[in-house]
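Below is a complete specimen:
___
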Amino acid sequence: MDQYRVLTPDEARTMIRLAGDFHSGKRRLPPEIIAKKKEIKAAIRNAEAFMINLRVVDVGMVERVVQLKLELDTLYGNWAISETRSSPTLQ
């Protein structure tokens, strides 16, 4: 997994603009973010099914979901960083 860091103010502003563009339909999510979101949904479904059937929570499954969500956050951050560098108009 990538090393974590805090976004710069310009990168954070870019992330907010990207989110607005996505929600207004002006921009699409990168394919790797879409794939990671699907992976998270599948991991959650598996954990829920396990819990429903066995009536216990599997800590490993919960940790996996958390790990996937952190990876998703990294993908969103990397998207903002790359857009900040490649699109000065977004800054």
